[in-house]
Amino acid sequence: MRFLLLYSPRWLFLYPAFVLIIVGVLISGLLIVKPLNFGGVIFDVHTLLYTASFVIIGFQFLMFYGLTKIFAVENGLLPKSDRYHKLFKFFNLEKGLIVGFLTLVIGIYLSIHGLLAWKATSFSDLKPAETLRIIVPAVFTIMLGLQIILFSFFFSILGLKRNVK
Question: How far apart are the first and last CA of the chain?
């Protein structure tokens, strides 16, 4: 199993990551706007929670792919390629922290928006379908922002060996 993890990270992690992220983003985007009705079956905020989870899980697959690839290359298990060097030029700690922080800020903004909507009702009962269209993306972006920040730190740590040579 470890052999597959190190030598085939593209098939195990990268392609499933893209599928999960694309499906999750597309369906989540539609469900944030309104429920979807297919043949009398209504997909609403409950499905939104799952599709948002697809994106988070897909992102984790993507990060695991990147970290596995770096580990394998830095330990001489896979050869370095031009694409590998471009990865470190394109993605660095600073860019990752900025993207992660901005994503986190969006989540905090959406959370405040949801709180203010609740306050507007004098903190009484809410309409779950409306509220969750704000709260699910808020929680999603907070989680994603923190994951991007943590991944950025670990990515830069694994790349230190490459930069020392």
Answer: 30
